[in-house]
Amino acid sequence: MGNSYAGQLRTTRFEEVLHNSIEASLRSNTVVPRPVFSQLYLETEQPLAHDGRTENDDEDEEVGSESNSPPLPYQMKPPPEGCCTTDGFCQAGRDLRLSSLGSDPSDVPPGFMLVGVRCPSLPETLLVCAVDRRFLPDERGHNALLGFLGNCMGCGEKGFRYFTEFSHHINLKLSTQPKKQKHLKYHLYRNNQGVLVKGAPICWRGHDGRTRQTGSSLSEGHVTSDEQPPNMTLTRPTHTPGSYTAGSAVDPVTLPQIADVSHSLTNGNHAAPSITQPPLNQSRPGRPSAKGSHANAGPPKKRHKGWSPESSANNLPESTAKTPPSSSALSTLSVSSVFTNGARSETAAPLSSLQGSSLTPLSPPGLSVTIPDQLLHTCSLQPVIFKGHGPLPQLTGNANEVLLSSLLQSCYLSSQTLPGVYQHYGPSPIQPLSTEMQILLTVYYLVQLGPDQVPLIEDLEQIFMRSWRESHLSEIRQYQQPQTPASQGRHYGIETTSTLPGLPQHLSLPPQSQQPLTPSQLPWLAQLAASSCGEGVVVLGEKIGSLAQGLQQMFSRLMEGRLENTNYVVVIVTTPGQETQSCVVVTGKHQCRALAESMYSPKEGLKEINHQLSTGIAQELIHYCNSQQDGDLDSLLDSATVDSSEPSPLSSSQESAEERSLKTTHSPKDTNSPKDSHTQCSKDLPSPKERVSSPKDTCSEYSVEWREVRPIQLAVARKLLSHVCAIADSSTQNLDLGSFDRVSFLILVPSSEVTFQQTVLHLWNSGVLQELGGLDQECVSQREAERFVVKMDQSAQARIDSLTQEAQSNSYTLYILVHDHAHCDINSASHSSSDCGLGPVDQLLNSRQVRDAPNILILHVTSFPFALQTQYTRISPYNEIHWPSAFSNDMDLYHEKTRYFGVSELLETTRSGSSLPLMRHDSSFESMVSALEERFPKLHSAVIRTTVLIQHYCVALMAASGRIDSSHNLHKHTSVETLEIVQSLLTASQQCPAHHGHMVLLRIPSLALAAWAHRRLSRVRRQLGLEESFEIILGNPNQALNIGQSFTDQIKTWLKIQDADWVPQTYLELEALPCILILSGAEPLGESLPRSLKYCDLRVISCAYLQRTTLEQELGLAAYLVRAESRPPHNPGPGSDLLESDAEKLSSTDNEEEEGRENRDSPLSCSQQVQSCPDSGALDPFPAQSTTSPNVSQKGTMDAIQPPSQSQTQLQPQPPSFPYPQATIHQPQVQSYSQAQPISQLQPQPQIQSQSLSQTNSQTYTQMLPMHQSLSQMQIPPPQTQPHPPAQSSRQHSKSTSSGSLSPRASSPHQSCSWARGVSRPPSVLLPRALYDIITASDSSGLPRCSSFLPHMSVAWASSFRPLLSKMMTCTEQSLYYRQWTVPRSNHMDSSNRTEGRSDNFHPRRLLLSGPPQVGKTGAYLHFLGILSRMLIRLMEVDIYDEEDINYSAQAEGVLYHLPNASWPNPDIMRTMPFDYTIHDPKYDDISSVYCPGFTPSFEGNPVRLEDVYLRRRTARIKLSKYAAYNTYHHCEQCHQYLGFNPRYQMYETTLHAFTFTHLLLGEEIQLYFIIPKSKEHYFSFSQPGGQLESMRLPLTSDWTPDCIKSPIFTPTTGRHEHGLFNLYHAMDGASHLHILVVKEYEMAVYKKYWPNHIMLVLPTVFNGAGIGAAHFLIKELSYHNLELERSRRLEGGAPTGDVWPFIILADDSCVMWNAVELDARNGSVEHAVSLKQILQHMEACPDLAHYGLCGIRKWSSRGLTGNKQREPFSRGLLHDFLLLNVDRSQNVQYDQNRFTCHDVDFTLRLHSAGLLVCGFNSFSVMKKQIAIGGYRTFIIKTKTTDVPTSVGPSQYICAPDSKHLFLATPAQLLLEKYLQHTRQKLFPLSTKNYTHPVLSVDCYLNLGPEVTACFVSSRPHSVNISTTGLLFSGLLLCFVDSFVTPGFLKKFTFLKGATLCVISADRSSLRQTVGRLELEEEWRFRLSDEFQTANAKEDRPLFFLTGKHI
């Protein structure tokens, strides 16, 4: 007791117990026991606490009474005769007691566990038995089978199947029905000594599978029954490993607190996480899973006799509040910031309403306390009684004058809920805080509170947690040791100090670690602690027999006035043999008032204010304030009322120094100008009407730039877009972006008219409406934009309903619901209360229609996302987008001209010691308020504060306008701060020729008070004759903005608005208007304020609601964007404009990330951080006085107090990641002056100092940039370059200039506009003292205190054992923190979002954008809508090859053979048409033209192209039609079954079938494989079901069905499994068709993965390296073979053989759309998109189709119809890309299986020469998509030695036989084709550009390059060839010639002398044989050096060729 060993730790049995617990965990029957730390960190289970009592006490009381129903009379049947009936022995007489069997070896069968059984007759003894583990629960109380199977460990009898039978055997002698849940109590295990000991209790949760609900009336600090949630069983998300970065995200000492997130448990297996510590800058939090287990409440202790499963949370007696909190989370929710802040409904109700209700625990009769009469009148206060330990006695008498709160009791209970990790593994030495310890710590906490401080629940909670941690420090370390033994102290940062935060050093911790605190010691210790603060805290503990006696004694003292100086009375009852009881009574006047007001909800508080105003209670105060003894303010005003012509001069002492200095810097002409003379009275200024008409009075510095989009907004918009794309790309198929063709949207804003109009204004100026096509550019008005914005009030229902109906009917439109300012309304629609409305947001956004619509995406936008980040959130952590932090390394990438100045920067200014901070409090105002609060105890503090504030403004207005002189006594009824605000407001507009001024914001939450303030200020303004000087605006969220006409005319002039009816509707449009804005409403609703806001007066806001959101949204009103940099000219002279453009201010809503940064040298200190230009070589020598602040008094006007550096440096906190070298920083001296020095006596300062400083210090903006960027932009002129003469230095320095001149523009002497100086400086903020102290204080992690407050009123903490937010947490980590540690209350719209059988409950199409207030989120999401629309349009478009047909220009127009509108070709006419050998396909403009008589090509038009030139061919972007073919990325609803690739459908089962046929050309059997999905097997015939594949079924020619395509479609493809257009569902318009993908063997698996519902034909292995020719060869030969098989099958069936359909379709894998040409009499030919089904059915219906060997269609071109309007509808020439092939007629013409290029030209030429008809349907065209990936034209030529592609020139493709050459790993045929293409000049020199002398190419066509012409002839008998009579050939090409080529055949042709011969063969011998057989040596000369081979190794079978010259 009180000794010095408090900080030391006991080291007695901890090691032993630790070993026991580790061994217990090792022997545990769970599969993987989780590491202690990960359980501690990732769980939120709350097991039973012991409430300060010993374990045995609890066990004794539990016996026989834990059943969930009244005890049933139960009679045990008598034991058999002769059996042993002794307690502790079984019926066989064997000892079962643990003490006896502890050291005996036990034989436990596999699957059984040793269990301790409680024997009622032996309470101290456990009996040992073995039970099958399947019938026991796991650590979480789950997975226990019903029933029982046990063995007796005494006699060894086995197989007891019923617990009743077993209980008889072991002599349990029960009076109630035996239940295993009641009597199987503990796991048993052997310790290190091998002794059997009691382990962890068995975790029985609900008997018989029923859910137990233990309610707690403390769940939300309420006691009223209607506030209780209907179901207390909670589901908690489990965070996967890495949910936090353990090293950076957690307060070092708070890790052991992190209790309470339940395991996600699957079949009893825990996932063992591995927590690592990544580097801070790359932490990647994992995704919290929302899968959780129901944490069902367990049975209460014995002392709660009335508990039953039927008693739900609504009707629980309050005695259950003493239940040691079960795992029901709500029982431990610590709710609020101020002690009573959560007990709203409970405490707002007067006590009398609670009398006799079941909610008040009634003490035994006779223990009631009578409240004295006239308590409030006598003591001027309303005491607040905090329930503590034990039931409170009944209060009778004047109950209305006492307030009750149970919040302290809730805090006690939650801090006793020990984390479950410490109870799992054996008996734990870690116990919760005892009752006595809690009481003593409470006394310590109250003692150290200041006289004006109000207790905060968070502080007390943290003290309890820290005390608990430190008293069990070594145990906690040991529990964590198994995971990271080496780094426990460093990694977890465990501290051993015993001093609590906020406690005096001499008050060390009670010596709990030495000796437990006993009840008898408690009163003495508490009084000892209280004695240090005098009478501030009184402890009533000695000789107090009950709480009733203590309270009665307290009331007596209170009435006698003995507690006048006492703030708290602590009543402690320590009766021997009973539990310690306590309560705390608050008797301090200030504390009672604050606590009483905090008991109201915000809306109730406003109602109370309205009540006080409406009933006249407040009139006495107002009258008192107006009639001070110094004279009646109103009478003074009346006497001061002036006629409009009467001057109202400013007194000379009040004249601002700024004006005088401005006069000195004007030219003489300006000085003499009466218009600019600032000594003129305000009435001498021209009226607004005169101002409007005067063109001379304009301000060149005025500019409004808030409409532009900043780079960072573009970046955030792109982040939003990427998240939307990520949702679409995920495998969940929750968003199909490809199916949408347009975007529509609706923006939901809070019910504030100004916010509504502001959003409309932003929307209108953004251009999004025009971009989305919502409105026509010309005829649109701003009112049209209102259709897209809706206020979230009751009228919103119809708008949302119409949108959902529209979404249902327009499935191709993506609807974006933007929920702006999403934190404003999160009330549940089902939870109706007076405090919140019907929850329109919940009602609308969370409705089933919106939730399930696949084309509605919801975007929540907010500055305060905390309330949406709970355990039940609907938003996935992956769908959160956070505004980039100002401290992130990425900020420089955005090239921002502005720097955000928000809450954290405001806080930075308060840490500066040498200059006036931007955020401060007004002590004189506070002292006036305190005095009046004591005088008027019944009045609400908001009424008093508002009255005082308005009095301040009235007096200041009188003083500033000269109505009272400086000696008048009324001066003491205002404050320096208020006087400065008013003076600045009045003088600013007088200094600018256009009368620009500042805005002053008064924040008055109560509408009634705000209206009164508006009336009062307006009257004073009128009486002072200042109506034209400034406007007073009442900002009511429910009303439109109302501005006087004269001020409206001013704004219209400034903004150059011509519309006569225009009125400002937003605060942004009030830019530069001198005005006082009184902003009312319970909370700001997203209204953006203009840049002219200079003062943010928050002195009236409530200090009662200390939630993070509440505080930060009030401070967010002052958020500002300032210039990040300025680049002055090298020689700034007078009139230079140093500021390029002003900071903009955009609407929007806080990343508190900035608040968590390291403390740095304050940017506001006068120590200027001036840096030299990097190339100057030395620092510019600034004299010290150049940075001296003007001589102003400490309490002088606000601008005067600021040093000259302020408006520069206060804007930018220096990023900690870019420290500046000390050498570059000057430390000037700053002079300070006493407060008493009057303003008029200030010493003058030289003007040159201000001027030089303003120019040099404009550089300070660059401090916000990283060093390498800012230094390069610095140009600091030396001071002597200033043009001002020294004579000016004697002039008086002005106070306004002292702040304004620091603007980068301020050096211009002509810059008289106060607004222009002010826009580069954030506004000043005035706060109540209490809030200022809270906000500027830091917690142990270095963060501001307010960041650790409850995030929002609608959420609650999940556990007291949570860590503090860490200073280094990113926004993402903060989100995960709140997702783990907060739960929504019942009135929160997410409270109903519990897991409903799904693994998570995130809404898949819901995003959250969070960013600081006023940072520009509205502009970002509007831009996002625009780029999303552009992306959808881009997704609906495709790049189509758009090239004009080649080789048409030189061709003469021929006669028309068919009528233009002929449907089908006539075979007879087609035979008369000449065959067109010319190549027209533009993709072949780099190949050899085919000789055709009468055609003369233009070689200049066909330049030589590079290899990959086809990637850069001309394309057109075309919107996809509804008949397009798609790749794998398209998956609309209609395609799901077609594709067979969707989670909703079972993956289609496929089978692999071999198919073998013989072909003569290949000389061996070919084995192909078909992959056939089960759904497609009907297209094939099998020998039997599931048997051998026999053939592919073909229809009959006579068959025709309207929804069927007869021809099988074959698509050869390679390398395009993702991008190939194989989805023909839409192209076929749903028609049935047989589509077969032809793939190479090595690509089979990947194609099958991407296209599981497609039939695949797998080429043999030997064709893995082959080209497109091999694929077409096999397709054609397989199809002919199949045709014969089908004919045979039909013949067997009796059908005619010739009637089987012989056509197949060969389609390219890039055919995307098809078109048809229709003839229109008016417009000529019109081309439109049609389905492939329509084209194929038309072609298949051609009556003479069987006469044609090959049909095709032309390639689309946008100019295809213009050049040849009379083009023949059918043509006879070369066909490509999309072919209809008659495999029957073309049986004898094969594709060349070796070809890689031009195979279709070669095949068509041979087909024509064989006499078959070729027909092109020119009325149809195919569009080919540009696909840069894969395809048969992608050739990689690489060397044999390495797999890396190397640059190998065409000359290296061949080599001399048997030479040492670099061999290539490329097919020989490809090398040959490429060589012939690229070496044409060397090979056929005479043929180059020589069309009239072509190269004779026999039986094949090879590409010899674009400048060579080839003449194709066939050697086959009866073949069709062109006439070559008289034609001289320049070369001869013989490639693999067969026996049809003879010497006689070659002698028919004539060659030029020197013509080149090229003979190609497969090997050298066949090459020589060919030369000999054809007798070539007779006419051709050969040399040995003319023989070549392709550069292949011998095993790769090179090709050989021989060249020669014609003799």
Keywords:
2007 residues; alpha/beta; 12-stranded mixed β-sheet; 8-stranded mixed β-sheet; 54 helices; 58 strands; 25% helix; 15% strand
Radius of gyration: 45 Å
Total helices: the number is 54
* Distance from first to last alpha carbon: 125 Å
State the low-pLDDT regions, or none: 1-15, 30-72, 207-338, 340-366, 482-514, 642-696, 1126-1310, 1501-1511
Class by alpha and beta content = alpha/beta
Average pLDDT figure: 75
Oligomer designation: single chain
Task: Please characterize this protein's 3D structure.
- This protein has 2007 residues and is of the alpha/beta class.
- It is 25% helix and 15% strand.
- The protein is built from 54 helices and 58 strands.
- The strands form 14 sheets. Strands 38, 39, 42, 43, 44, 45, 46, 47, 48, 49, 50 and 51 form a 12-stranded mixed sheet that branches.
- A hairpin with a 3-residue loop joins strand 46 and strand 47.
- Helix 10 packs across helix 11, helix 18 runs parallel beside helix 31 and helix 24 packs across helix 44.
- 53% of the residues are buried.
- The N terminus is likely disordered.
Structure summarized in a few sentences:
Helices cover 25% and strands 15% of the residues. With 2007 residues, it is α/β, with parallel strands linked by helices.
What topology does this entry show?
Elements lengths: L13 H14 L8 H7 L12 H8 L35 H4 L10 E8 L2 E11 L17 E3 L10 H7 L10 H4 E7 L5 E6 L32 E2 L2 E2 L48 E2 L4 E2 L48 H5 L20 E3 L3 H5 L4 E6 L5 E3 L5 E3 L1 H9 L19 H14 L8 H15 L1 H8 L7 H5 L28 H10 L6 E4 L6 H14 L7 E6 L7 E6 L2 H10 L3 H13 L4 H8 E2 L2 E2 H8 L16 H9 L2 H5 L15 H6 L17 H19 L12 E8 L3 H14 L1 H4 L17 E3 L4 H14 L3 E8 L19 H6 L2 H5 L3 E7 L17 E3 L15 E4 L1 H8 L8 E3 L1 H13 L5 H20 L15 H13 L10 E5 L3 H17 L7 E5 L9 H11 L19 E5 L13 E5 L10 H8 L4 E4 L74 H4 L4 H4 L37 H10 L10 H6 L22 H6 L13 H5 L5 E4 L1 H8 L18 E3 L13 H11 E3 L21 E5 L6 H19 L1 E5 L25 H6 ...
Parallel strand pairs: 10-12, 11-13, 14-15, 19-20, 19-21, 21-22, 22-34, 23-34, 25-31, 26-28, 26-29, 27-28, 29-31, 36-54, 42-43, 42-45, 43-44, 48-51, 53-54, 53-55, 55-56
Antiparallel strand pairs: 1-2, 1-4, 2-3, 4-5, 6-9, 7-8, 11-16, 15-16, 17-18, 24-30, 32-33, 35-37, 38-39, 39-44, 40-41, 45-50, 46-47, 46-51, 48-50, 49-51, 52-57, 56-58, 57-58
Helix pairs in contact: 9-11, 10-11, 10-14, 18-31, 23-44, 24-44, 30-31, 31-32, 31-33
